Amino acid sequence: MKRAKIAGTGSYVPENVVTNDDLAKRFTTSDEWIQERSGIRERRYFTPGKDTVAGMGVQAARIAIERAGIEVEDIDFIIFATLNPDYMFPGSAVLVQRELGLNAKAVPSLDIRTQCTGFIYGLSIAEQFIKTGQYKNILLIGSEIHSSGLDFSDAGRDVTVLFGDGAGAAIIQPSEDENKGILTTHLHADGEHAERLAVLAPSGSKPRHLTHEMIDDRSIYPVMNGRYVFKFAVEKFPEVIHEALQATGYKPEDIDMLIPHQANLRISEAVRKIMGLPEEKVHNNIQRYGNTTAASIPIALHEAIEMGKIKEGDLVCLAAFGSGFTWGSALIRW
Prior knowledge:
- The protein has a 5-stranded mixed β-sheet with strand order 1-7-6-4-5, sandwiched between helices. The chain has a 4-stranded mixed β-sheet with strand order 8-13-12-11, sandwiched between helices. Strands 2-3 form a two-stranded antiparallel ribbon.
- The chain has helices at 20-24, 31-38, 53-68, 93-99, 118-132, 157-160, 212-216, 226-248, 265-275, 286-289, 296-306, and strands spanning 4-12, 16-19, 42-45, 77-81, 109-112, 138-144, 166-174, 181-189, 197-198, 223-224, 257-260, 315-322, 326-333.
- It is globular, with a radius of gyration of 19 Å.
- The chain folds into 2 domains: 4-174, Thiolase/Chalcone synthase (Peroxisomal Thiolase, Chain A, domain 1, 3-Layer(aba) Sandwich), CATH 3.40.47; 181-333, Thiolase/Chalcone synthase (Peroxisomal Thiolase, Chain A, domain 1).
- Helices cover 33% and strands 22% of the residues.
């Protein structure tokens, strides 16, 4: 079996920058309040009529394809992670396939819905296909438009201030060097806490999947038990990172770069201190983009690579925690 590697990455964020001061004009909040609780200074919002969930993914994908040194026609499998697809169905993966002109080749296209861990879950899925030799150039995308589904009122401010829009992508290929590539991936879930971070409507389990009552009672908007999520995340992040290290015989000090899901700067800082890592070994960009859910790790990974923070031979750890609850990690020898 061949080891899988990330051959190229790409990202796209909308041009519309929304600062904390901009949000303070729409509901009761302040730049100081938001930064103190999340570290976020600004985020990006999509432009209706220009940006789509699939379209942003395609923009990121084209960069990843170029960085990997392949052609669009070389892609033989597509994995698309998002919590807010363009349509209720079909999923956005086939829209990416169509926009890239791969529909004529009938390239298989898979959507996954594990929210903040979408990129990690997708990476693990891609790794298995590469290792068995079934596919050779897998396009993995995480793309999110949150801003169209947020509650811009005082009732929803605690959640709304956290999220932004964006997309990230990666090309997964077989590695010619058995000592480089994805060393291990670890995935977990605990559905006991599903409703602590969720959007409860529209719902396929109701007599009508969308009603005026759902709009009026705000169940169409995200709900989050912030304190519980914070506590659980700070527990599970280090746990799943240690799991990856133990599986490969490494120690925390061997990590050259940790890319955590960008949920909250306070969570990332807590995890960094628990792991005993210096600031320069953890890359965060939530300050500028907010939480972009499935897109956050590939956006941050691409940025770290472009900034020269990740070099050939580095030991890179990716880790995420999110709604479900789901959590996971990947350890990569770059």
